[in-house]
Amino acid sequence: MKLSIATRRSALALWQAHYVKALLESTHTQLSVELLEVVTAGDRILDRPLSQVGGKGLFIKELEVAMQEGRADLAVHSMKDVPWNLPEGFLLAAILPRADARDAFVSVNFDCLAQLPLGATVGTSSQRRQCLLKSLRPDLNVISLRGNVDSRLRKLDEGHYDAIVLASAGLIRLGLASRIKEYLDPDVFLPAVGQGAIGIECCDDPRASAWFTALNDQATGCCLAAERAFAQGLTASCTSPIAAHATLTEQTLHLRGLIGRPDGRQTLRQEITGPAQEAHALGLRLASQMLAEGGKELLANLVNPS
User: Fold this and answer.
1) 67 and 73 in contact (C-beta within 8 Å)?
2) Sign of the Cα pseudo-torsion (208, 210, 211, 214, in order)
C-alpha cells in the first residue's frame, strides 16, 4: 500500500514530512510512503506581511488541492499555520505529541530580549509576536521578516536585524537549538495557537483517516482543541494578534488567552481552568469572556485601526 504526503519544500516542512513518513512506515509495515513537494502561495509571496495577503491558510491551500485531486493522501502541517475553520471535506486525523511551544529569541550580538539597546531592530512575520514585543519594549523597531528559517537566519547574520523571534520547536527540529539565545517565558510571551505541534490533515474519509489515528496524541489533541476553540470563538485568523496556550495536569486543563493590538499598546489576558473533557467548551468560554471584557473592541481595531 502506497501513501503520498503533500508537503511544502522548506527545510522544516520536509523534516516534518519525513518524520511522519518514518512514523507511518514503522507503525504500518505494509505501507510505503512518498513525498509530493508543493510550492504554496505563502512560499511565493514574500514581499508583504501574511495579514495583507490572506493569512497562513496560504501555506496549506495547494496541499489541500493536491489531496482533492488524488495526487496526495495526506498533508503534514505546523499546527500554528492551520486555521481553526478547515474547508469542508477535510479533517485533522492526528495531532502528534507537542514539542517546545515557546518562542525563541535569536541574535548574533545580544543574549536576551532585555539586553537589546533602545531602538533595536527586531524581525518577525507575526502580528502576535509584534504585539508582545512592543508591549514589553515599546522602544523596539519591529519590522516584517518573511521566509523560511534558513533565510531568516541569513538576514540576521547579514546584519539586517539586531534580533529575530522564531518558534523554538522549528529550530530544535532542524538541529539549530544552538542559535537560541533565550527561550521566551510562555507566561509572559504567550505562544501561538497550536505552536510546537504537528498535525496530519486528510480528506474526510474514514478509510483514509484510519491510517493515521495510531499517531494521535490525546494530551496534545486536548490542549489544541481548547486553543483552536478559543480562536474559533474569536473568529480570529492565525495572523491576528491573539495567543492561546493550554496545559494539562492529569485531567485538568488550564488555558491562557491573549488579545492585543499589533502596536502592543493594549493587551487583554485571561485564563480558565476546567475538566479536560470540556476542552472545546473551555476555549469557547474563554473567548466569550474576553470578547465581553474588551476583546471585541481590540479585534475590531484590526479592521478599523485608529
Assistant:
1) yes
2) positive
- Cα–Cα distances in angstroms (integers) from residue 235 to residues 8, 134, 142, 228, 284, in the given order: 26, 24, 26, 10, 10
Please give the Cα distance from 143 to 130 (Å, whole number). 8
Q: What is the pLDDT of residues 61-118, one digit of tens each?
A: 889 999 999 999 999 999 999 998 899 999 999 999 999 999 999 999 999 999 999 9
Buried b (16+ CB within 10 A) or exposed e, 22-57: ebbeeeeeeeebebbebebebbeeeeebbbeebbbb
- Cβ burial of 230 (10 Å; 0-12, 13-18, 19+) is buried
DSSP code, position 72: -
Q: Which of 43, 73, 81, 162 is catalytic?
A: 81
Q: What is the pLDDT of residues 165-216, one digit of tens each?
A: 999 999 999 999 999 999 999 999 999 999 999 999 999 988 888 899 999 9
Mark whether 81 is an active-site residue.
yes
Superfamily of domain 1-96+197-216 in the CATH hierarchy? Periplasmic binding protein-like II (3.40.190.10)
Rg (CA), the chain: 19
Helices 218-234 and 279-290 cross at an angle (nearest 10°) of 30
Rounded to two decimals, the pTM is 0.91
CATH number belonging to domain 217-299:
3.30.160.40
Fold classified for 103-183: D-Maltodextrin-Binding Protein; domain 2 (3.40.190)
